[in-house]
Every structure is written in structure tokens, then in C-alpha cells.
Specification:
This protein is an alpha/beta fold and about 475 residues long. The chain has helices spanning about 35-45, 55-60, 65-80, 125-140, 165-180, 195-205, 220-225, 230-240, 260-265, 295-315, 315-325, 330-335, 385-395, 410, 415-425, 430-455, 455-465; strands spanning about 5, 15-20, 20-25, 30-35, 95-100, 110, 150, 185-190, 210-215, 225, 245-250, 275-280, 355, 360-365, 375-380, 380-385. Strands 12-11-9-8-7-5-13-14-15-16 form a ten-stranded mixed β-sheet. Strands 1-2-3-4 form a four-stranded antiparallel β-sheet. Helix 1 (about 35-45) crosses helix 3 (about 65-80), helix 4 (about 125-140) runs parallel beside helix 5 (about 165-180) and helix 10 (about 295-315) runs parallel beside helix 16. It is globular, with a radius of gyration of 24 Å.
Length: about 475
């Protein structure tokens, strides 16, 4: 059966097929389940009255099966599984952690073909600005002290070029941690070139969480990351004292989306977590995820989902745990659909996170560095109220491009950076990414439904754990 996904007319429900199995998903009740081919055809025909039903359907299925299916679909209507589109009251935030992203530098020792950052040496943050940003974050942004506060020092370049600066910022953070008795820590992502045993030991000693970005095997990593020495990075990773809380993350793109190969390559380094995320590039960029390659991306995710399912049911808990504990793009939807629950914000910017640059500008996120459209305030005057309110209003039921979509409570909208670079509107979706996210939701539903029916005990364990 060819892939398809159809939102039923005048309803908040969708019918789709994954691996020849049709499913029904209801945004109103947040329920999903496999359905019969008869139910699929009746729903797609948009006619639940036997007398006026299409003759082809009457000839395709026995009269008794049609009657039983119509009765069940009527129950769906009565229980609001099949219901008109409606907004829901905005509930608790999905984001429990609060992030301050310090754009401490835009300098880098590599030149990645898909990088969104400006490499400008004038964007080196001084220590006083960093301290000012952290105090602003804690005193004027976060709602209470019963949260986890994360200071991300990745910036928009290679953070380990400024190791001394990072250690001084971390020292200030640890002082605040003890003084205020709060759960706060620093983290960063590196390209691994400078992560020598001495440096990694120093980061560990100072309780700085860190990970490495690597795109899979040597050939593709060095192709996409000019200046990368794969052997050197591999040696640095293998020489880590221990790999507790250490993760590897890949950026996949038009020329690198064999997810099984990428995952296996990274997992061979024995990190605690492994994740993969798509590039954030406009569709006309040769490295982007776009409508010309989206079906290839879906095919690759099909293979990966089946492979990961096999690892789970084969008791490869090490593999599945490394996957689920990461910030992988697919795991986002697996985590939302396993319970399920509504998410209202795609991006935490202005809601539970913000970024600060070297000039004390408050910006949406590091991807907006050097772009005046991304400035939403400054550390002296605080947030621009109108700009912050705009971000707070950009949730599932208020984004005009998304508010009638069946996937809005599982997807919640577009990446602001990608929306802006592609459409000059932070909230406007990119068609290929819409296709990808909707399909990952469908794959997630297939994944958990299969596990629930085929391995119920394991399914219950996953619900409790993830």
C-alpha cells in the first residue's frame, strides 16, 4: 500500500497508513489505534450512511462487516474521537528545564557546509556580560527555584577555543549553585578536535556536561566538515576517562541520511546517548531537507524505525536507552505519543529559554546571531514586551498555519530559525519539514501500537520509563 495521510474533512482526526496498516489518530482525544481496511475506506469516503454509500465499497466488503464498522464509527463520533476542530486550553508547559544559551563566540576551527552561524571574531563575549546574563536569567526570567537551570556555552562556534572563559563562567555558576541551593549546571557541544584527555578531564572535574557532534563515518564527516580530522576526534573520544553523561549527536542532511549507519557508527564509540537531528537550512540549499528528497528521508526512517524496534524487542536495552535519552529528532515524537499528551510550543524561546550575544542583546536562539530580526531585548532594559508576547502567543492553536492541523499538539509548529530563513516569518512552516514531522508522528504511532499488541509487558515498561 502506498503511503498516505488524510485529515478527515471537518474533523480533528487523520487516517494514515504505515507499513500497510491503516491507523486513526484523534487530536481531540489524543487517541490512536489501528483500523480495518473497511473502516479506512468508509472514513476516506466521508459517508457513513449505508443507503447513499459508494457502490464500490458495498461490493468490496460483506454487508455484515460494513454494518459493524459503521456502528463502531458512530461510537467514535459519540465519544468525540471523530469531532470538529476545536482549540484546547493551554496546559502546563512541556519544557520543565530552563535554558540560557550564551553565544560566547562565533569562532570555529572547522567550516561545516551546513552551518548557520556567522564566523566573526568580534563576537567574543566577555566574562562580565556572561555573569550579567546569568543573573538576569535567574532573577528576572525563571519562575521559581524548583527547576533545573542549564547554562549552554556552545555558542555558534567551537566552545573549546575559549576554554579559560568557559571555566571562569562555570566557576561563577557553581558559586551560585551553592549560594542559592539551586540545580544549575553548564553544558556544551564540541566538534571534538580540541577535546584532548587533559581537556575532557578538566571538564569532568568541573562538572561541565559535554558532547561531541559527529556526522557518522569518516568520509561523510570530513566531507561535510571541512578541517575535521576524524582520527583525531575518534582518539579523543576513545581516550575519555569515562563516558557517563557523554553524548554524540549527528546532523543529517541531503547527502547523509542513512540513519542506521549513522547510529551504529556513533554507538560504537560507547557514549551514553546518541541522537540525530536534521539541518536547519532553507529548501533551496543543496544540503537541505526538501520536497525533492523527503521521500528518501522517509524511506530511511522506515528502515531505522524497524531496526530500532527490533533492538528493543531483542533486549538491546543499551541501544534503545541511548536513543531515547538523547535529544534525537525522532525521539521527540516517540516521547510525546507514548502517553500521549499535548504540547503547545514547538520552540522554548521566550517561554523557557533565550540566548544572549556578546553585545548583551537577548536573541531568540543562537541561530539568530548577527540578525537584528532575532533581537527580542537586552540585558539592561530586559525583554521587549511586544516581542516576548509574540513568542508566547505562538503556540499550537494560535499559529494560523497550524491551528487546523491534526498534528498540531504533537508537532506544535516550525523551528523559528528555519521559518525565518525560508519564509521571513518565524512561525511559517517549511513544507518538507511539515511532511517529515507528520511522518515521524505516524511512525511513532506505529512503533508504540506494535509494541503494545505484540509485547504488552515491554510496552508497559517503556511507558513507565520514558
Amino acid at each position: 500500500m502506498k503511503r498516505f495521510c488524510t485529515q478527515l474533512e471537518n474533523t480533528d482526526a487523520a487516517v494514515f497508513s504505515v507499513f500497510n496498516q491503516p491507523f486513526l489518530f484523534s487530536a481531540n482525544t489524543l487517541t490512536y489505534f489501528p483500523i480495518t481496511d473497511c473502516a479506512k475506506d468508509l472514513l476516506l469516503a466521508q459517508n457513513l450512511d449505508f443507503e447513499t454509500m459508494d457502490e464500490n465499497i458495498k461490493q468490496k466488503y460483506p454487508h455484515k462487516e460494513i454494518e459493524m464498522t459503521l456502528s463502531k464509527l458512530q461510537e467514535f463520533k459519540e465519544s468525540k474521537i471523530l469531532s470538529p476542530i476545536k482549540a484546547h486550553a493551554k496546559g502546563d508547559l512541556y519544557y520543565n528545564d530552563y535554558y540560557l544559551k550564551l553565544v560566547q563566540s562565533t569562532r570555529c576551527n572547522l567550516h561545516c557546509s551546513y552551518c548557520f552561524a556567522r564566523k566573526d571574531t568580534s563576537f567574543d563575549m566577555n566574562l562580565e556580560t556572561a555573569k550579567k546574563a546569568i543573573l538576569f536569567f535567574l532573577d528576572k526570567f525563571v519562575p521559581d527555584s524548583n527547576r533545573r537551570f542549564i547554562i549552554d556555552l556552545t555558542g555558534s562556534g567551537e566552545p573549546l577555543l575559549r576554554l579559560d572563559f568557559i571555566l571562569k563562567v562555570n566557576e561563577f555558576v557553581l558559586e551560585l549553585k551553592e549560594k542559592r541551593n539551586i540545580n544549575i549546571f553548564c553544558q556544551l557541544a564540541s566538534n571534538g578536535m580540541l577535546l584532548t584527555p587533559k581537556v575532557s578531564s578538566l571538564l569532568k572535574k568541573n562538572n561541565i556536561l559535554f558532547g561531541v557532534s559527529l556526522d557518522g563515518e569518516k568520509e561523510i564527516s570530513e566531507l561535510n566538515r571541512t578541517g575535521l580530522n576524524y582520527e583525531k576526534v575518534s582518539q579523543n573520544i576513545n581516550n575519555l576517562e569515562n563516558k557517563d553523561f557523554f553524548g554524540l549527536a549527528a546532523t543529517y542532511s541531503a547527502n547523509n541520511h542513512d540513519f542506521i549507519k549513522i547510529f551504529k557508527t556513533l554507538f560504537a564509540f560507547k557514549p551514553e546517548v546518541v541522537g540525530m537531528k536534521p539541518v536547519r537550512l532553507p529548501e533551496n540549499d543543496k544540503n537541505s531537507i526538501n520536497m525533492n528528497n523527503i521521500e528518501e528521508i522517509k524511506d530511511s526512517y522506515d528502515r531505522f524505525a524497524k531496526w530500532m524496534y527490533k533492538q528493543l524487542v531483542s533486549n538491546r536495552n543499551d541501544i534503545f536507552s541511548a536513543f531515547m535519552k538523547s535529544e534525537d529528532y525522532f525521539t521527540r515524537f516517540l516521547k510525546v505519543t507514548i502517553r500521549p499528551f499535548r504540547i503547545y510550543y514547538r520552540c522554548s524561546a521566550g517561554v523557557s529559554s533565550f540566548a544572549v550575544d556578546a553585545k548583551e542583546n537577548i536573541i531568540i536562539c543562537p541561530a539568530f546571531i548577527g540578525n537584528k530580526e532575532g533581537i527580542i531585548g537586552n540585558l539592561t532594559d530586559g525583554f521587549d514586551p511586544s516581542k516576548k508576547q509574540k513568542l508566547e502567543r505562538l503556540y499550537a492553536d494560535k499559529i494560523r498555519y497550524c491551528k487546523k492541523c491534526w498534528a498540531r499538539y504533537t508537532c506544535a509548529g516550525e523551528c523559528f530559525s528555519l521559518g525565518y530563513t525560508t519564509n521571513s516569518k518565524i512561525e511559517k512552516p517549511v513544507p518538507a519539514m511539515c511532511e517529515l514531522k507528520k511522518y515521524l508522528i505516524q511512525l511513532s504511532i506505529w512503533f508504540w501500537t506494535s509494541l503494545r499488541f505484540e509485547h504488552p509487558e515491554l510496552y508497559r515498561t517503556c511507558v513507565e520509563k520514558y
